[in-house]
């Protein structure tokens, strides 16, 4: 078995309906080799079949020095006779990429989705999109990122005398959080389990990969040994999600008193008190008739839900109980909803 990642199996998989996926996602521990594999994959696609590619980043400032960031490692390993250069275009809105002076693709940013939409004809020759680090370690995503991500794909996948072209998106990341916006929107958050290696959905496939060789190499590093007990070491070595703390996620039973309904990201969550053991519990079995309904974001606000500011007293009490370890949660989405409510 190779000590480096191989994405051949993922790329050969069908989605849950037996069709060819258009979204391929892979997450793994650090230094696994997935970036090297897929960077090489798209370059080979261009050299052998003339397939141009788009490198998708989150913010346009990341387009700076894109040729070196993308090509430097694989140049020495696989393409010593080639060089890559980049030329900024559209007043910095995107970058043209050249392999030995032959145009091979583009560098684009999610936060420039509106520009890409208005100038979609410029990218009608893209045949594959590659996005590295789609999970953000500091939980920093573009405003309305999923909408902008979909807009960019729609813009690129039209043209060449077709209303919709097949343009696969390959997305790579370390294991940061199962609450990242892509997993939430694709329904992966609720389906991913410990031990899952491959997960198929409508139009997508996901690989959850663990590289033992990479983990061992990290563990033997003197630098990592100096920090062996912290959460970042677990994330780097053990494929543990960096931003997900499963503490206080458990099942609670018995008689309870309904406190309120929290609406977050279009989903209703129930908050109950179990007086017998002093536990406040949140699950996704909301009582639609209960009058206290609180929206956590402005997008969730409507005539039947009041904003957080109107319930300061209740939220202060809940925050006090949370800080004293009295909360339990059915799952991570429930915990995320409560955390977002109490952080205001």
Task: Please give a structural write-up.
A hairpin with a 2-residue loop joins strand 8 and strand 9. The protein folds into two domains: 9-238, Rossmann fold (3-Layer(aba) Sandwich), CATH 3.40.50.300; 257-342, no CATH class. The mean pLDDT is 88. It has helices at 8-12, 34-49, 66-78, 113-118, 145-156, 181-186, 212-219, 222-225, 231-238, 312-323, 332-342; strands at residues 23-28, 52-57, 84-89, 94-99, 102-109, 126-132, 169-174, 198-201, 204-209, 257-264, 267-274, 279-283, 293-295, 306-307, 327-329. It has eleven helices and 15 strands. The protein is an alpha/beta fold.
Jot down its keywords.
344 residues, alpha/beta, Rossmann fold, 2 domains, nine-stranded mixed beta sheet, six-stranded mixed beta sheet, 29% helix, 24% strand
Shape: globular
CATH A-level architecture of the largest domain: 3-Layer(aba) Sandwich
Number of helices: 11
CATH class of the largest domain: Alpha Beta
State the helicity in percent bands.
25-40%
CATH topology of the largest domain: Rossmann fold
Total strand count, please?
15
Can you list the strand order of the major beta sheet? Answer: 3-4-5-2-6-7-1-9-8
H/E element string? HEHEHEEEHEHEHEEHHHEEEEEHEH
CATH H-level homologous superfamily name of the largest domain: P-loop containing nucleotide triphosphate hydrolases
How many domain modules? 2
* Uncertain segments: none
Distance between the termini: 49 Å
Radius of gyration, whole Å? 23 Å
